[in-house]
Amino acid sequence: MSSFDLSDESEYVLSVDSPSPAVDRFKPETVFKLLRKRIDTITRDEPSEAVTRNSRIMQTLLKDPYSVDIRFVFDADKSYSNVGLWAHRSILAEYKPLADLIQEASSESATQTSSGNDAQGVINAEMLTIPLSDISPATLCVLLRYIYTGEINRTVDTSLHAISTTESALVTKGIAGRPASFVRWSPMDKDSPWRLRDVTWEELLRASSRFGVSELQQRCEDAVIASIDASNVVDVLFTVGNTFGKIKDTAMDFIVEKIGSVVLEDKEPFAAYRNHPDAFDFLVELVRRKAPKAAVTDAA
């Protein structure tokens, strides 16, 4: 049972006596804000155990099936059309794009309730479902782990998340009006079939940008830039450079400086992107960037 002593708010003494995550005395947003404030105010003189303890509590909250109140579903991906990834809307609402999605889902639930279109005749206001069509469950798992704990691990451990399954593929309305206990929670042992592939920095970059997690976005941009080499620079330019200017500039400068190692006699790296909407503009800009350097070389 989780225990929370908030009698002295300046200390924020929180402890977890067991991994069983029934957070029943305080709302998730209260715990989240207290932990975030506590972590932000820790000085270098304080022991690192404080940060570790608070991170552990947030990890417990992330996988707690008793307090979650919002579910993301991936009905566009047939492999995961009956999978739900759960979280706390009060925590996600710290980020405006996610807050907007939550507000939209809340409005739709209110409309269904007033019109009486749902199967049960009532929508449980504490349980919302948001369908996502352009992000993988693995990417969202990594994003959620960062939001809750500040940790980045692109290898997904499903045991750290609240993941459920449903009998029907029509999961967007599968639990309307039904209590959380009705949901079938996936087994999370070592042999669990719910193993997700590793997430790339590019995937995480797009997700963090989309959902307004700016601090993670910056770290992803730096990681993508650090990974650029002759074998992937063209792919990076066309897949994420068209959206993120810093990455585009770095990739183009790399191509201009090392064109000989990028374009080989038996390999045409630009061929796959001939029909890309930015192909012409990128090639023109590469020529423009190359021209001054060529002039300097000729003059020498």
Count of helical regions:
11
Structural class: alpha+beta
**Spatial sequence of strands, sheet with the most strands:** 5-3-4-6-7
Give the terminus-to-terminus CA distance: 75 Å
Radius of gyration: 24 Å
Mean pLDDT: 76
Largest sheet: 5 strands, mixed
Q: What is the third-level CATH name, the topology of the largest domain?
A: Potassium Channel Kv1.1, Chain A
Shape descriptor reads elongated
Helix and strand string, N-terminal first? Answer: EEHHEEHHEHEEHHHHHH
- The overall strand count is 7
- CATH level 1 class label of the largest domain: Alpha Beta
- The CATH architecture of the largest domain can be given as 2-Layer Sandwich
Tell me what portion of residues adopts beta-strand conformation: 5-15%
Low-confidence segments: 1-25, 116-125, 168-174
The count of domains is 3
Helix content: 40-55%
